Amino acid sequence: MPVRTWVPPGPLDLHRTLGVLQRGPGDPAFAVRGGELWRASRTPQGPGTLRVVARAADGRVEAEAWGPGAEWLLEQLPELLGEGDDPELLTARHRIVHEARRRHPGVRLARTGLVLESLIPSVLEQKVTSDEAYRAWRLLLQRHGEPAPGPWERMRVMPEPRGWALIPSWEWHRAGVDAKRSGAILRAVRAARRMEEAARMDLAEATRRLMAIPGIGPWTAAETLQRTLGAPDAITVGDLHLPKIIGYALTGRRGTTDEEMLDLLAPYEGQRHRAARLILLSGRVPPRRAPRFPVGDIARL
Predict the structure, then answer these.
(1) Which residues contact 15 (CB under 8 A, 6 or more apart)?
(2) Are the C-beta atoms of residues 201 and 211 closer than 8 Å to each other?
(3) Nearest to 56 by CA among 110, 108, 11, 101
């Protein structure tokens, strides 16, 4: 069981930095136990499980890992926790951004170095509620993933590309995943090597590589590369809620469009995703007027 200790270059909020990798409560590939964060991944060397804990007394991060992918996970630990990320590159142009950064100085952008791990759940989140997408991810990993290495029996590693390709159509349907989303995932896993190459590209090139797959558009590419690359400028467009939240937080107005959101974030060019992340952490959201969007279930059809 390999072990590694690492000292971050600055403040580190472990839970908010890695929390973006969790796909809803009950995610079989991510868990929190006390102050420990657990993550099960399919690395280039095979499945692995990583346990990370921050020691408040001296700022050290302690990690241990299990499985064939253990050494890879520990080698990537500093990048995962934002060693290559520089929050100081953002200059706050709005009071709400300044205050959010002051209150959350340890939030860094995680860089997993893995594409399919973030791409597949992002595709599942297209055009559905978060609850529907989280349920699909949970069911697919429970039924088609493999037990994660290490001591936590309930954790699962997502299938390898061939495993995704072998999932029958009725299993996608049972998980509530329509043909459009399952088709995009199947096309991506058939080009798995090409997809994973995007982890070593810059943001523009990686975006083009992902969007070469039919069914993967700007929204999905941004959601993926925010995690894979820790890309500070990978702003999400085409989201139902984000423009409205950004617009309300910065102007107090409702109904902001994608184009208006991009105009508002223009002063943060190069750091637009980081700015949006800080705005979301501020908690300033427009009061709800309409009932929550109803959850569909195509598995019942």
Answers:
(1) 32, 37
(2) no
(3) 11
What tokens appear for 287 in the block?
A: 């009061």
- Read off the tokens for 101: 């950064």
| C-alpha span between 171 and 257 (Å, rounded) | 36
Q: How far is CA 150 from the centre of its chain?
A: 23
Give residue 291's pLDDT band: very low, low, confident or very high (50, 70, 90). low
The single-letter code of the amino acid at 130 is S
pLDDT digits (tens, 9 = 90+) for 71-86: 999 999 999 999 999 9
Question: 237: which 2 tokens?
Answer: 């467009």
Other beta carbons within 10 Å of 35: 12
Look at phi and psi of residue 40 and say left if phi exceeds 0, alpha if psi is from -120 to 50, else beta: beta
3-state secondary structure the chain: CCEEEECCCCCCCHHHHHHHHCCCCCCCCEEEECCEEEEEEEECCEEEEEEEEECCCCCCEEEEEECCCHHHHHHCHHHHCCCCCCHHHCCCCCHHHHHHHHHCCCCCCCCCCCCHHHHHHHHHCCCCCHHHHHHHHHHHHHHHCEECCCCCCCCEECCCHHHHHCCCHHHHHHCCCCHHHHHHHHHHHHCHHHHHHHHHCCHHHHHHHHHCCCCCCHHHHHHHHHHHCCCCCCCCCCCCCHHHHHHHHHHCCCCCCHHHHHHHCHHHCCCHHHHHHHHHHHCCCCCCCCCCCCCCCHHHC
Cβ atoms of residues 295 and 129 within 8 Å: yes
Question: Model pTM greater than 0.85?
Answer: yes
Residue in 187, 177, 193, 112 with CA at minimum distance from that of residue 141: 177
Check: CB of residue 37 under 8 Å from CB of residue 17: no
